[in-house]
Design goal:
This protein is of the alpha+beta class. The chain has a single domain (7-187), classed as Cyclic Phosphodiesterase, Chain: A (Alpha-Beta Complex), CATH 3.90.1140.10. It has four helices and nine strands, in the order E-H-E-E-H-E-E-H-E-H-E-E-E. The strands form two sheets. A five-stranded antiparallel sheet has the order 2-6-5-4-7. Strands 3-1-8-9 form a four-stranded antiparallel sheet, with helices on one face. The radius of gyration is 17 Å and the shape is globular. It starts with 6 loop residues before the first strand and ends with a strand. Hydrolyzes RNA 2',3'-cyclic phosphodiester to an RNA 2'-phosphomonoester. Its EC number is 3.1.4.58. A motif (HXTX 2) lies at residues 134-137. A motif (HXTX 1) lies at residues 47-50.
């Protein structure tokens, strides 16, 4: 009889601290009546994606974690700040509402490049799009009128700063809230 290995949909991300998640959640609650998106992200699911790995045999998690440990040992923690909001997709009917990231972006981009290279060496396919760090807040605008991109400038808030000191492997559970489960956490170099 053949051993069947369970496959998990996984990605690597920078986690957000509880205080930042709470601030983003409170801000999002205040926007829901003005901006009619079909799906608002659960506050526990806020993160900054570093590398999407996709469907992966669960027995490879240890190997991926070891790769992250080697990468983290060479990558110092860095400061990040949640910044202005924006959208992806057609301006009148965006598919994603996001919060931007500022701060030590050079360190974040270097970490992302190291992880992308190391995961490619493990056989994973790298993203073809340029890396654009952000925090997804909502998906699929369903408003009755056109979305007004100018309203994003008026709605920005002070979301706060934090020290990004860890990288996490998340598993996706479709149709569950929250939908992301932390599988492994690795600390960056102190």
């Amino acid at each position: 009889m053949e051993n069947i290995v369970e496959s998990w949909r996984i990605f690597i991300a920078i986690p957000l601290p509880k205080a930042i998640k709470e601030t983003l959640s409170a801000w999002s609650e205040g926007q829901k009546s003005a901006w009619e998106f079909a799906k608002w992200v659960h506050p526990e699911d806020y993160h900054i994606t570093v590398q999407f790995l996709g469907d992966t045999p669960a027995n490879r998690i240890r190997e991926i974690k070891q790769m992250l440990e080697r990468t983290a040992a060479q990558s110092p923690a860095f400061s990040l700040e949640v910044a202005k909001c924006g959208t992806f997709g057609a301006p009148a009917a965006p598919r994603v509402l996001w919060a931007g990231v500022e701060g030590e972006l050079k360190a974040l981009r270097e970490l992302q490049a190291k992880i992308a290279t190391a995961s490619t060496e493990l056989g994973f396919t790298p993203e073809e799009r340029p890396y654009n760090p952000h925090i997804t807040l909502a998906r699929k605008y369903r408003g009755h009128g056109r979305f007004d991109p100018d309203s994003l400038r008026l709605a920005s808030a002070d979301f706060g700063t934090w020290k990004a000191d860890a990288i996490v492997i998340y598993r996706t559970h479709m149709n569950r809230k929250p939908m992301y489960e932390e599988v492994a956490r690795v600390l960056l170099k102190a």
